[in-house]
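Field log, afternoon session.

UNIT: design team B
ACTIVITY: writing a sequence onto a fixed backbone
BACKBONE:
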């Protein structure tokens, strides 16, 4: 049995409060070792309470009613947009489009920007480690336009190879779409360097920030990218809402993604004119409750501090990798400094079996291809087991994970 991991220091200025998260207890009040935060984060009481208020005593439609509660909810909804803009360093709230999630954000850019700008013979650059939601929308866009997709390889330790990217990019590339942090390997991209490479040939850069925003300070202006997307539910907020940030001049030049109410200026049967961005991309009644609750999640995360969160998760990753590396039958994947995520194999045991046995021990991990089948092909495996950390994770989760894997070894010999 490996040595027990050393305790994780408390999060700076806050203390470590698992009690903020009611989802970390089982129905009979026992601790639940939740190590699937990369899939979706548990919600703090502050977010749950914000959702309850927004759905209850504060609830009304936005942008339409002249009565007081509607006006107040409209103010709260637009305040949430400003809150998100400040959180990621946007130049203004008009650069923030509320979408259902990062997947819709990427589809919006692929269809709206891509439908206007991609032509036959153009090329799109992705990487080997992308999530399906940053592959399939571009495949659809390429098929419609007659464009082609190229794939940047990975370094030996599982990072996007930016040197290879620089060597393979050409003026034919119009869009580069890459993950800020891999959802499988936890490897982090140097976005600034990727932006320089993309812009050197006149290409735009879209960044999938789903795994970065909950654990790294993000300033889209400083990063130099052109679009940035993330989902609310991975940022300790609700499902059903995400964010597309785009440079204002790009959003202003893009046609609507969907048609309907709210996104219009004037409708006649002869012609319809559209509202300016971001409203033109938000057809229909928006995710009102979700937007207000996302702002509460941002407040919660910033109250702790992203630098403290990153340091906390980095310490947990180091402890977990050290403990798992001492188990001979475990193969670790990805870089040593992976951001909050560890993928691994247990020799001779399918990841689904690992996950099932760990569940019996009160430990929740993810087992599968993680919506990254091209990466699985690159790694030469059908699936991996993945443990991912969050604000609420601590050394007891690592100890439970190690105990569970030891049980896996005993069962499978």
């Amino acid at each position: 049995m490996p040595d027990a991991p050393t305790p994780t220091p408390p999060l700076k200025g806050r203390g470590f409060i698992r009690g903020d998260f009611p989802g970390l207890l089982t129905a009979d009040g026992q601790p639940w070792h939740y190590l699937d935060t990369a899939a979706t984060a548990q919600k703090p009481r502050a977010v749950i309470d914000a959702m309850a208020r927004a759905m209850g005593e504060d609830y009304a439609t936005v942008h339409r009613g002249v009565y007081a509660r509607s006006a107040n909810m409209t103010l709260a909804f637009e305040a949430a947009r400003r809150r998100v803009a400040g959180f990621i360093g946007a130049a203004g709230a008009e650069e923030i489009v509320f979408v259902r999630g990062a997947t819709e954000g990427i589809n919006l850019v692929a269809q709206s920007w891509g439908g206007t700008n991609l032509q036959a013979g153009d090329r799109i650059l992705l990487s080997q480690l992308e999530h399906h939601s940053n592959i399939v929308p571009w495949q659809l866009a390429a098929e419609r336009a007659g464009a082609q997709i190229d794939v940047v390889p990975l370094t030996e330790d599982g990072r996007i190879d930016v040197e290879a990217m620089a060597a393979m990019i050409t003026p034919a590339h119009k869009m580069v779409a890459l993950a800020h942090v891999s959802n499988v390997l936890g490897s982090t991209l140097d976005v600034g360097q990727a932006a320089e490479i993309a812009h050197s040939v006149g290409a735009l850069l879209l960044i999938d920030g789903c795994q970065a925003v909950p654990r790294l300070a993000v300033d889209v202006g400083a990063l130099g990218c052109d679009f940035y997307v993330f989902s609310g539910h991975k940022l300790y907020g609700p499902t059903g809402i995400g964010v597309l940030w785009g440079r204002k001049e790009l959003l202003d030049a893009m046609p609507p993604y969907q048609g309907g109410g709210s996104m219009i200026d004037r409708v006649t049967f002869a012609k319809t004119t559209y509202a300016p961005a971001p409203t033109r991309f938000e057809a229909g009644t928006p995710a009102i409750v979700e937007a207000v609750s996302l702002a509460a999640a941002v407040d919660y995360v910033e109250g702790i501090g992203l630098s403290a969160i990153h340091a906390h998760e980095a310490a947990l990753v180091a402890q977990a990798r050290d403990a798992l590396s001492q188990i001979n039958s475990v193969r670790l994947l990805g870089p040593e400094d992976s951001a909050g995520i560890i993928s691994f194999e247990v020799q001779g045991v399918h990841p689904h079996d690992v996950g099932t046995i760990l569940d019996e021990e009160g430990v929740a991990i993810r087992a599968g291809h993680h919506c990254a089948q091209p990466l699985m092909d690159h790694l030469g495996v059908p699936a991996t087991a993945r443990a991912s950390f969050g604000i609420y994770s601590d050394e007891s989760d690592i100890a439970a994970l190690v105990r569970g894997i030891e049980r896996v070894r005993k069962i499978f010999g």
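LOG NOTE: The first strand starts at residue 33 and ends at 34.
NEXT ACTIVITY: expression trials, pending approval
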